[in-house]
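REQUEST ID: PR-0412
SUBMITTED BY: lab tech R.K.
PRIORITY: routine
TASK: structure prediction, single protein chain
INPUT:
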Amino acid sequence: MNIHFSPDVGAALSNQKPVLALESTIVSHGMPYPENLSFAEKAESLCRSVGVAPATIAIIGGNIHVGLSADELEIIASGKNIKKVARHEIGYAIAHKWTGATTVSSTMHIAKEAGISVFATGGIGGVHRGAEYSFDVSQDLTALSQIPMVVVSAGAKAILDIPKTVEMLETLGVPLVGFKTNEFPAFYSTQSGVSLHLSVESPNDIARLFQSHVKAKLPSAILVANPVPKQDEVVSSEIETYISKAIQLASDRGISGKDLTPFLLGHIKKVTEGRSLETNVSLALNNVQLGAEIASALV
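STATUS: complete
OUTPUT:
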C-alpha cells in the first residue's frame, strides 16, 4: 500500500515513538463546519501535548494520507463533496482519485498497514435497528473481528441496536473491555443496560492485555469501551426519545445506507439545540486522551 505519511507521523514511526490513529469521517460527516475543524485541531493538539503523534487518516486525490497537514485537514472539514470511504471502497477510491474521509473500518485497515496499533474514534458502527428486516450491519464489526489493534470508543452509536451489536461482537470473537466500567456505554450516555464481563482500570492494563492478545495470535481487535464523561452525558431515557423520532423521520423520507447516520446525528443535534454535539465532542476527545495514553504505554 502506497501511503503518504506526514513528517511527524513518519518520524514517530521510524523512531518507534507513540502514534495514535484518528478517523476522518467524524470530521467530514459527524459534525458541522467549523465545529468539526475545531474538534480535529483539539484532538491533534491533545495528542501532541502528551508526546503522541496524531495520525488522522484520509484519502486525498486518490492518495492515502496518514497524518494530515493543516490545509489537508481543512479540506476534509470544509469540502462539499467529501466521500465517505469504508474498507471495501479503498481500492475504488484510489483508482478513481477520490477525496474521502475514512470510516472506522477503513481507518483500521490503513492504520494497521501503516504499523499503528491504537485507534481512537467516537462510537463504532454496528447492527442497525430493524436489521432483522434490512440486514443493515456496519462492516466496522467485521473489521474489528479481523484486524488486531486497540480501538477506543464510547461504545456504539446510540442510534443502533446496542444489545444486538454487542451480541454480534461477542459472536465474532471481539473482546469488549470496559474502561472503569462494567456496562457497555451508549455513545451519548454512560449506560446502555448491557453488561460487560471484562473491565480494566488503567492504560497500562490495556497495553498488557493487547500484548498478551497478540502473543496468543488472536486475529481480532480489542474494543475498549470508554464512557462519555458523566458531566457531559445525555441520559439514555432522554436521548432515546429523540432517536426514535429521528429514525421514524428518516424512514418517512426514505433515508438509508450511508446517508442515515449523518441525517440522524444532524436531526438529534437540532432537536437538542446543539447539546448532542457538545456531548459528541466531549466523548471523542475523552477517547483521544485515553488512546494517546495507551499508545504511550505500548512503546
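NOTES: The chain is about 45% helix and 15% strand.
REVIEWED BY: pending
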